[in-house]
Structure formats: structure tokens, C-alpha cells
Amino acid sequence: MQLIELSEKNKQAYNDFVAANESGSFLQSWEWGEWQSALGRQVKRFKLSASAKASADRQDESEEIIGAIQLVRMPLPFGRYYLYAPYGPVAAFGANYKLQITNYKTIFNELKSKFSNAVFIRIEPKDNFEIPPSDSLIIKSSNIQPGSTLLLDLSKTGEELLAAMHHKTRYNIRLSEKHGVEVEKEFAISAGHGLYFKEAIDLIVETAERQRFKTFSKNYYHKFIDFFALHQKGEVQVHLYKAVYKGILLSSAIMVDYGKIRTYLFGGSSQEHKNVMAPYSLHFRAMLDAKAAGLSFYDFWGAETSGGKHPGFVKFKQGFGAEIKKYAGAYDVIYRHSYYRAYKFLRKLNRILK
Questions:
Q1: How confident is the model at residue 193, as a pLDDT?
Q2: Which CA distances in Å does 283 have to 81, 170, 309?
Q3: Is 341 in the same domain as 288?
Q4: Does residue 294 share a domain with residue 237?
Q5: I want to staple 216 with a disulfide (CB 3.0 to 4.6 A). Which of 181, 212, 220, 275 is the partner?
Q6: How many Å separate Cα 47 from the centre of its chain?
Q7: 276 and 310 within one domain
């Protein structure tokens, strides 16, 4: 096995591998890496090949890939940095557990020689992943991405989807339709700072601030939509949904399509006219659109237990009949112990001072 760095000419084969595997995510897509580059971050992508003779120039590379990883370089003081693989590495579909661990270790060892100033790599594989008892270089860490999600199977008909929902959710969808809530969808093809996107983004940010979610700036969301508008022919497709009642925007959401999954990435809802249940209509329409587009799953992007900080929001998601999918969580692969200990100490100190 060997780890091979990829370039632009490998984009399609890389995306084909990531999108086709259950452990793949849009966060490991080539386009997401380009978005990170647009934010000023350095991004590197690699494939793990079973062949000793493999290279980035091989034409049959999509068949030989047994693992892939996209890394974002995150700065640390004194010229150091760590590498972050959101929902990565991606293992070949069907690989047994022992083989995955062997593949991961090969990736980690190869990367250590390629990034001499890296303090550690933070990985968040979606596969089952456990630390081998003898391995002190890999430790459990704090999740950055959701450690679990709610995933809805779209193979059912529209009526079957409704029947599988909680009766209250089903009632609210029909109530919203009865009130005349209109759901609009906009592909991010004419994106910009116009009123259409401004209102939707304002609502997303205001909702996060009201509910004390961590959020990005309004400028970030505008740049996000603008970027994917320019890359609309790529594998990652971004859509903006709005639920409107009597001309008033009551709910908005940014959806991301990749592979066979539509992900509800960002969303917001107004405090006005809550009785018309606008978010219910929005999500049901987005599900039906995803199904019509040939997608297989609708990902609600994050699940917490009822004891979490926002149980009401999670209960809203669960009402649609989605199943909880748990991920392995985050791990740090440590390359430089002394720097890593200093990093952890400073992080802890920063939390105390806040």
C-alpha cells in the first residue's frame, strides 16, 4: 500500500470514490476543499492504493483506491499547525474492520513524513473506529462535526414518508399547507448579495443567535452561496429554500447535495406566525425534491439526546421519521507530544478565561 498526493486531474476519480462510499461526506468532497482554499486555508488530498505501482497518473485509479483523505491545514503558534480531516478518512465500502485500521495506520504513518511541522492530525471517521490498546499516539478528542445525525431513507413514496412520521409532524405539514405557506427553492446559480439571499441569510443568523447556536457571520454565508454558484457544475450542489406566508419569510434553509445524500446544513425560522408551521412544509418539500432528484437519504445534520442543549430542535427532526446514525467521533493522531501537550493546556486555559 502507498499514499499518493492528488492534483486537479484526479478530481473526478477522487469524488467518485468518496461519494460512492457510505463513510463519504461532502466535507471530504473535492469542492469542499476548494471552498476551504477560498477561505485562505491550505488543502491537501491523498488516496491510499493497494498497488505498490500505483501513481496519481493511473487511468484506472478509481478502482484501485482503498482509502482517501482530504486535509485542511489549521494554524498554530510558532509556525506549527495541525491537519484536520472533517469526516475523514474515507474507507473503501465493504472493507472489514481490521483492514480499515491497517489502512488508517498506513495513512497516518505516511502523512507524518510528508508534514514535518504538523503537531497532530484530527480525524473524524464516520466508520466504526477504536483505538488499538497498544497505540498511545491516537487519543479520543472533541467532536467538531456532529457525532451523530438523523438520516431519513427516501426510498419510500411521498405517502409512505408521511405515514412513517410522528402524527403531530404529519398534522403540522398538512396544517401548513392549509394555511397557504408557499415553499420556494432557489439553486445557487444567480447568487449574490441581493434581497432574496439577504433575507434568508439574515434569518439563519438571527435564529442561531436567538437559540445560542454557534454560527458564522452573514458575510460567510454570502460568500458560501457565491462560491458554490460559481461551481454549480461540480459534484456538490447547494440549494436555498424559503417558506413564505403572506409575503413574509418564516423559514429558510441551505441544503447541500453530494453523492446520494441531501444535507440540511443551515437553517432558520422566524418567531412570527409560528402557528402556520412553516418549517414543516419547507422540510417536506425539500425531501420530495431530493427524492425526485434521485437522492437516497435526507440528512438532518446532527442529533442530540433529549438531555442535550436543544432537545426541542432534535425532537422536531425526529418527528419526520429519521433514524439516528452514530459516528466514530473525533481522534487526534499525535506526531509531536510536547507541542500537543502545550496546545491542550492553552486550549483549556482559554476556556477557563472565557
A1: 47
A2: 39, 12, 22
A3: no
A4: yes
A5: 220
A6: 20
A7: yes
285 closest CA partner among 167, 184, 135: 184
Cα–Cα distance, 292 to 296 (Å, whole number):
10
For residue 256, the domain's CATH number is 3.40.630.30
Residues 181 and 228 in one domain: yes
First-to-final CA distance of the chain = 46
Q: Supply the pLDDT for residue 188.
A: 52
Q: Rounded to an integer, what distance in angstroms lies between the CA atom of residue 104 and that of residue 142?
A: 19
My answer on whether 278 and 343 are in the same domain is no
Does residue 24 sit in the same domain as residue 170? no
Sequential DSSP letters for 99-160: HHHHHHHHHHHHHHHH-TTEEEEEE--SS-----TT--SEEE---SS-SEEEEEETTS-HHH
10-residue mean pLDDT series, the chain (354 residues): 92 95 94 98 93 60 76 93 96 64 80 93 84 72 93 96 97 98 78 70 94 89 90 88 97 96 97 97 98 97 62 83 92 94 89 80
Residue 130 has a pLDDT of: 65
pLDDT at 50: 78
Domain that holds residue 157: 149-326
Number of domains, the chain: 2
**Same structural domain for residues 10 and 99?**
yes
Give pLDDT, residue 307.
Answer: 44
**Side-chain half-sphere exposure of 271, counting CA atoms within 13 A:** 6
Same domain, 171 and 310: yes
Cα–Cα distance measured from residue 226 to residue 223, given in angstroms and rounded to the nearest whole number:
5
Give the Cα separation of 89 and 122 in Å (integer): 10
